[in-house]
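Why does residue order matter? Because the sequence determines the fold. Keep that principle in mind as you read this record.
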Amino acid sequence: QVQVVESGGDLVQAGGSLRLSCAASGTFFSINDMGWYRQAPGKQRELVATITNVGSTNYGDSVKGRFTISRDNAKNTVYLQMNSLKAEDTAVYYCNAQALILFSGSRYYWGQGTQVTVSS
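Structure:
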Protein backbone atom coordinates (compact mmCIF):
# COMPACT_ATOMS: atom_id res chain seq x y z
CA GLN A 1 0.00 0.00 0.00
CA VAL A 2 1.20 3.48 -0.89
CA GLN A 3 0.08 6.69 0.79
CA VAL A 4 0.47 10.12 -0.75
CA VAL A 5 -0.05 13.10 1.52
CA GLU A 6 -0.01 16.76 0.54
CA SER A 7 0.46 19.75 2.82
CA GLY A 8 0.98 23.49 2.60
CA GLY A 9 -2.26 24.74 1.13
CA ASP A 10 -3.44 28.06 2.48
CA LEU A 11 -5.15 31.36 1.80
CA VAL A 12 -2.75 33.89 0.27
CA GLN A 13 -3.04 37.28 -1.37
CA ALA A 14 -2.48 37.77 -5.07
CA GLY A 15 1.19 38.29 -5.81
CA GLY A 16 2.21 36.19 -2.85
CA SER A 17 4.01 32.88 -2.59
CA LEU A 18 3.26 29.46 -1.21
CA ARG A 19 5.13 26.16 -1.01
CA LEU A 20 3.37 22.81 -1.20
CA SER A 21 4.86 19.52 -0.09
CA CYS A 22 3.89 15.95 -0.87
CA ALA A 23 5.35 12.80 0.63
CA ALA A 24 4.91 9.23 -0.55
CA SER A 25 5.19 6.43 1.96
CA GLY A 26 4.39 2.75 2.29
CA THR A 27 5.62 -0.41 0.63
CA PHE A 28 7.27 0.08 -2.75
CA PHE A 29 10.57 -0.48 -4.50
CA SER A 30 10.92 3.09 -5.75
CA ILE A 31 9.05 6.27 -6.60
CA ASN A 32 9.52 7.34 -10.19
CA ASP A 33 7.56 10.28 -11.61
CA MET A 34 5.88 12.69 -9.22
CA GLY A 35 3.68 15.60 -10.06
CA TRP A 36 1.14 18.21 -9.14
CA TYR A 37 -2.28 18.68 -10.68
CA ARG A 38 -5.06 21.06 -9.75
CA GLN A 39 -8.80 21.28 -10.07
CA ALA A 40 -10.80 24.47 -9.75
CA PRO A 41 -14.55 24.42 -9.13
CA GLY A 42 -16.43 23.51 -12.28
CA LYS A 43 -13.25 22.73 -14.21
CA GLN A 44 -11.36 19.62 -15.17
CA ARG A 45 -8.22 18.56 -13.37
CA GLU A 46 -5.18 20.00 -15.11
CA LEU A 47 -1.45 19.49 -15.11
CA VAL A 48 0.60 21.88 -13.01
CA ALA A 49 4.04 20.28 -13.07
CA THR A 50 5.77 16.92 -13.10
CA ILE A 51 9.28 15.75 -12.28
CA THR A 52 11.06 12.49 -12.98
CA ASN A 53 13.32 10.70 -10.54
CA VAL A 54 16.33 12.18 -12.35
CA GLY A 55 14.99 15.72 -12.21
CA SER A 56 13.47 16.31 -15.62
CA THR A 57 10.56 18.70 -15.30
CA ASN A 58 7.44 19.61 -17.24
CA TYR A 59 5.08 22.52 -16.56
CA GLY A 60 1.60 23.52 -17.58
CA ASP A 61 1.55 26.64 -19.73
CA SER A 62 -0.35 28.69 -17.16
CA VAL A 63 2.33 28.30 -14.47
CA LYS A 64 5.55 28.45 -16.47
CA GLY A 65 7.93 31.02 -15.04
CA ARG A 66 6.00 31.29 -11.77
CA PHE A 67 6.01 27.80 -10.27
CA THR A 68 8.97 25.51 -9.61
CA ILE A 69 8.78 21.80 -8.90
CA SER A 70 11.56 19.97 -7.07
CA ARG A 71 12.01 16.74 -5.16
CA ASP A 72 14.03 15.02 -2.49
CA ASN A 73 14.44 11.42 -3.59
CA ALA A 74 15.76 10.30 -0.22
CA LYS A 75 12.50 11.45 1.37
CA ASN A 76 10.21 10.50 -1.55
CA THR A 77 8.95 14.05 -1.34
CA VAL A 78 8.05 16.54 -4.04
CA TYR A 79 7.67 20.28 -3.58
CA LEU A 80 5.90 23.00 -5.51
CA GLN A 81 7.12 26.55 -5.02
CA MET A 82 4.43 28.92 -6.23
CA ASN A 83 5.31 32.58 -6.77
CA SER A 84 3.40 35.52 -8.19
CA LEU A 85 0.13 33.81 -7.37
CA LYS A 86 -3.01 34.86 -9.17
CA ALA A 87 -6.68 34.47 -8.32
CA GLU A 88 -6.96 31.92 -11.13
CA ASP A 89 -4.48 29.68 -9.30
CA THR A 90 -7.20 29.00 -6.74
CA ALA A 91 -7.88 25.28 -6.77
CA VAL A 92 -7.44 22.02 -4.93
CA TYR A 93 -3.91 20.83 -5.65
CA TYR A 94 -3.37 17.11 -5.94
CA CYS A 95 -0.11 15.20 -5.77
CA ASN A 96 0.50 12.16 -7.94
CA ALA A 97 3.24 9.60 -7.46
CA GLN A 98 4.28 6.69 -9.65
CA ALA A 99 5.36 3.81 -7.41
CA LEU A 100 7.21 0.74 -8.60
CA ILE A 101 5.80 -2.23 -6.70
CA LEU A 102 7.81 -5.43 -6.71
CA PHE A 103 6.13 -8.17 -8.77
CA SER A 104 3.28 -5.78 -9.65
CA GLY A 105 4.85 -3.15 -11.88
CA SER A 106 4.25 0.57 -11.58
CA ARG A 107 1.06 2.19 -10.37
CA TYR A 108 -0.03 5.80 -9.89
CA TYR A 109 -1.31 7.04 -6.56
CA TRP A 110 -3.14 10.26 -5.74
CA GLY A 111 -3.24 12.29 -2.58
CA GLN A 112 -6.44 13.73 -1.17
CA GLY A 113 -5.57 17.28 -2.17
CA THR A 114 -4.75 20.54 -0.47
CA GLN A 115 -6.71 23.76 -0.95
CA VAL A 116 -4.96 26.84 -2.30
CA THR A 117 -7.00 30.03 -2.30
CA VAL A 118 -5.64 33.25 -3.76
CA SER A 119 -7.52 36.41 -2.87
CA SER A 120 -7.46 39.28 -5.33
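The CA atoms of residues 31 and 99 lie 5 Å apart.
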